[in-house]
Amino acid sequence: MKIAACVVIYNPGEDAADNIATYAPHVDEVFVVDNSDVVNDKVSERIRSAADNVTVIPMGGNKGIAAALNKGVNEASKAGFTHLLTMDDDSYFTGDTLPRYIERCSEIFSEDDKVIEVGIHNSGDHDDDKVVNDETPDWVITSGSVIDIGKTVAVGGFLEKLFIDEVDREFCYRASDKGYKIRRVLDLTMQHNLGAPIKGKIFGKSFEAMGHSKIRKYYIFRNCTYVMMNYPRTVKPYKHFLRATFIKTILAEDDKLNKIRYMRMGKRDARRGKFGKLEV
Fold it and tell me: How far is Cα 206 from Cα 184, in angstroms, rounded to an integer?
């Protein structure tokens, strides 16, 4: 298994270089795909200096997570790599977690040639969630996953018209429909930042709302609707998720009216077949 890493950055903070330094020594090359609208030269230089095997690839603006991932896949493929570790710029590894994880991934790919992607338990997972405690899940998040490059290209890569949100899950559902398998390593943990959720309470019961912007709400509702339209097995859990997101937005978040408008617009655009980057 010849493995590289791909991290997609978008207006990253200075800690992105430190995060990259935790996995760069354990892979042959790190492709840093820069989706930033305006490149911060100081941060970019720090990233280039994080390790000797870092290659920065500017996208010339925000082309979306799927396009950036596909760029990383294509560059790794051209360079002769067989597998790719995909990372978010705020995710990192500690101790000897990554070399142990890569060894496990190598074993899993060798044992079953139908495996296209292996994910890892991450610090943002809720341990009581049966989805994240399944060694053979329906999906895994992109950050911290190792993908088979040849199989990824064969299934069409990541769906660029989604732009952001649901890109990782849609890839898994599509790969599964084509006969490939997803695996997850549960006894190793990657450090992953889920942001700062907003805490709320109703009828004495606490809950968390993610506090996404109206634009992000649009993508979530549009792309979830797209997934439900194309993968019927997702309808029940996705309807529950969207309903809960809508209610939590009303109960705990600010800018409610605009967010409600954008959530509705997202669902409408999915049904109309309008995708890509939202122009506002």
Answer: 30
Q: What is the pTM of this model?
A: 0.94
Evaluate whether 183 touches 117 at the Cβ level (below 8 Å): yes
Q: How many residues does the chain have?
A: 280
Q: Beta-strand (E) ranges in the chain? A: 3-9, 30-34, 54-58, 83-88, 115-122, 145-148, 181-190, 198-202, 205-209
Look at the alpha carbons of 198, 9, 54, 66 in this order and tell me if their dihedral is positive or negative.
positive
Strands 83-88 and 115-122 come out as unpaired
The residue ranges of every structural domain in the chain are 3-190, 198-272
Least confident of 50-59, 88-97, 126-135, 155-164: 126-135
pLDDT per residue as tens digits for the range 194-221: 666 677 766 667 767 788 999 999 999 9
CATH code that applies to domain 3-190: 3.90.550.60
